[in-house]
Amino acid sequence: MTAAFTVPRLQQTLVRLVPDALRERYCVAFSGGVDSAVLLHAMAMLREGFPGLAVRAVHVNHHLQTRAADWARHCREFAAGVGVDCEVLDVRVVVPRGESTEAAARTARYSALSQALGEGELLLTAHHRDDQLETLLLHLLRGAGVAGLDGMPESAVLGRGRLLRPLLDVDHSELVAYAQAAGLNWIEDPSNADTRFDRNYLRQRVLPVLRERWPAAASGASRTARHLAEAQALLEERAQEDLALARTGANLRVSAVRALDPARARNLLRFWIARAGCRVPSSTVLDQVLWQMLNARDDAQPLIKWGDVELRRYRDALYLGRSALSTPPEAMVWDWRARAELELPAGLGRLRLRPARRGEAAFAAPLQPLRVEWQCGSQRLQLAAGAPRRTLRNLFQEHGVVPWMRPCLPLLFVGESVAAVADLWIDAAFQSRDAGGEVLEWLDHPAIF
Questions:
Q1: Does residue 13 share a domain with residue 136?
Q2: Residue at 120 is within a domain
Q3: 238 inside domain
């Protein structure tokens, strides 16, 4: 039989998860429900014995319920009652086409929590053993792989800090018993009874039947999740080895991926895509990637999209990124003497001018503002005095600029003349031949080669 949930038990878990657990800064994600109420109360009690421990709470108001403002007020009052400050974060949930309200709310919530974390701060959530069972079953029914069936991790990076789930070995019934014994008040969210939501359907209709037959289902699911987490760690270790051999900059060499057997190639692609911060596609899309990208002609440029993510092939490389611009941005005026940096639209990075150091190729920036436009390929550039003028189209082809990024390269105009193409080339007429001048830099831009 599982030991009852107590403050010392929470302390033991934190010490196992964090080296200097009793001197850390903690932020409790506080919904106001019974689980997070118990976690916040227990952390406040733990702090009484360890003054070096800092605890605060954050409540996310999704504005999805008519009583959302009342719940935010309750959370502030509850936190104040245990001597903890509570910050309320207001978020607006936007539900993309094809996504559930649950998923959109979760994305908005974690984004807000991530931004609210201080450097090195630890976010505590009240996910428990029953939540882990629900998560495993949902992922199983959706056909998830090992990475989905390993459940919720006890510890993960989040923003500038870390996310900890110290209650994953605690049953929900234990938390309710603690709350009742401590005389805690909590919020009952009426949406938790709405079985139109998948998780609620499992909780209300399916799990009670499972527990009649298998009372220890949640404990078994937790063990399974731990086993699968170990298996996933091994898969990621193999993927890192394959990535080291296949990577060329931020891209993958097609020939290296083609040399792997299909299972290892899929494992590598999942790892590479997730590491880039993109949503990993379904198995069906991954199979399309393996077939279309690896078997296309050498001169082909196949494209596969899922959501706002694009995977392209150019020559012997796979390129991953967000959807390319369908039309070039509007022209911009850059008074570089007033501001040394210019933020470009549509995630195209920023331009910067800084004083040149000895030996650097310098840009003889004019006194008047520069005009920033985007290319159509017919403009010409003279790379050196006396050299023939070359079209940008030819320069792009010669230097291997990927086709889909060519319309996105910022051109710097002085009057009607192209003075520079991003930080790739400076026209001979605007190259500084004397000491001084400026170095033009294009920062934080998508991959172009």
A1: yes
A2: yes
A3: no
The reply to whether 243 falls in a domain is no
| SS3 state of residue 422 | coil
Q: Which amino acid is at 139?
A: H
Dist CA 283 CA 289 (whole Å): 10
| Helix, strand, coil percent content, the chain, rounded in steps of 5 | 40, 20, 40
Instruction: Give strand ranges (E) for 78-148.
Output: 86-90, 122-124
Show the domain range for 217. 7-224
| 91 Cβ contact partners less than 8 Å away, ≥ 6 residues apart | 60, 61, 62, 63, 108, 109, 111, 112
DSSP-derived pairing of the beta strands 54-61 and 86-90:
parallel
pLDDT tens column, 265-309: 999 999 998 888 888 888 888 888 888 888 888 777 888 888 878
- Tell me how far apart the alpha carbons of residues 99 and 378 are, in angstroms, rounded to a whole number: 43
Three-state SS at 199: helix
Is 114 in the same domain as 261? no
81, 192: one domain: yes
Q: Are residues 85 and 177 in the same domain?
A: yes
Q: What is the pLDDT of residues 61-117, one digit of tens each?
A: 988 888 889 999 999 999 999 999 999 999 888 877 667 777 788 888 888 999 999
54-61 and 438-443 strand pairing: unpaired
Number of compact structural domains in the chain: 3
**Residue 440, CA distances (Å) to 214, 309, 349, 393 in order:** 67, 30, 13, 21
What is the mean pLDDT of the segment spanning 180-196? 88
> Is 247 contained in some domain?
no
Contact 429, 418 (CB under 8 A): no
Residues 92 and 31 in one domain: yes
